[in-house]
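User: Hello, can you help with two protein structures?

Assistant: Certainly.
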Amino acid sequence: MSNLDNSGIATGRASKIAAQGLLGRAYVYMGDFVNAEPYLRDVVNGAAGAGISLQANFADIFGNDLNSEILYSTQISGAITAGSGTVFAFWFGGNDSKGDDFPITNSLVKAFDDTQDVTRKNVTINRTSAVRVVGTKFNSGDQDFIDLRLGDAILLYAEALNENGSTPAAITQLNKIRSRANLANTTAVTQVTVRTAIANERRLELALEGQRFFDLVRTGTLDAAMGKTISSNYHVFPLPTSEIFASGEVITQNAGY
């Protein structure tokens, strides 16, 4: 794992602001927005002092390891043969027979097109291929996997603010991300419509970055998005057997695995 310290130098460890962001995300995933808000506020307000900032150009986030937007990332190197590329293959290839080199769903394409989100679509989807495949977001096996970046943290903060009744402040945070994507400010104004707007923004901002599934599970919208009922067993991943054995089997496997 790697991160930027306050001087912007890779340290190989999580900095305080990275820990705050990951803890804030954990509280959001638990539905505890009251505890999530102060941690995420500290990330957003303390970003500049920690050498963290949104990339002005969305495309510059990717293929540019340890840039200013990255709070925490997993370093990937082709020089490491054992397990090299595992994270990339898990999210995008799955090592199965889905075929067509990381196919993109029509639903995601439509979501970009309906919002006229050209900036992020061009980075996310390679439209020149015979099939729609992952674009320049992930174009190298050596590219670090982004665990948390400031754009994600800002949207999580917006979500926490909105759920805690501070909808105007949430809109301000949401519009930071929309502005970077060259989109107009959101037209959402109520807590309900802003909730939907944030969810939609996360889908496009973080497309193919490994956040969508968890967002659907925690918001109770997985079945609707998939068009079928998904067993709750698969709302969580299996635990590594190595950890189960290391605990003397005090830790037990999640149901369904």
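That covers the first. Now for the second protein you mentioned:
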Amino acid sequence: MAPFLKSLTLSGRRIVAACVRHHSSFTTELIGNMDKKAAWDRFYTESSSGSPTFKHFEWFFGFDSVRDFVMPLLQTNSHSDALLRVLDMGCGTSALGPSIYRHSLLPVQVTCADISPVAVRLMQEQAQAKAIQPHNPSSQLRFVELDCTQLLQHYGSSSVDLIIDKGTTDALLRSKEGKGKASLVLKQCLEVLRSSGSLLQFSDEDPDARLLWLETEAQQPGVMKADVGVQEVGELRGVCYYCYQVTPRLIVK
């Protein structure tokens, strides 16, 4: 993978040209309530009803579009522990987490977590009906109901190697009451990541806006300092998408 186009500390932000903003095809009811468990339960219930077969729902794009951002990080984060811990945060019914489990050469424990028990159940049923064979026989795949604002209740500090956020922060930031939750999620992600770990935020939000938000949040009391890089993922239906790589930085007292 080519190095990130912009690799910088949060104390020095560089503005990048904006692209067209994304407007999803979600219902008006869901837009503005993307931080609500009930809204996602309803969404996944309705999207799965009337269909005889399970279909993964990809917000933005699938694994093939982002594998060159994800898989190299697993190689560089190898450590003495038996398994690399990967969290697909706000997985919905995406195939991203299962695809990492399937393709990783190194042993990984992939946790696909979502606030909606409906989405988690659908993923579990699909995994049971169509078993996925991992490249590494020691790899593990789990599906967990999890509110991403409560990561520290499920993970210890410095225990996760890679967190993937494909649109979860976007959903929170675009909700009526979700901005505070997005801030809490970022804080807890930095807390549970190993010093060698990374948070990848995949988003259509322009770098000038997202980097400013990350910079502001990293200056809040009690938030671990971080470095961030951004690279363009590509264009889908006329919309530019980006990958923001956020890594915790040890605080020198």
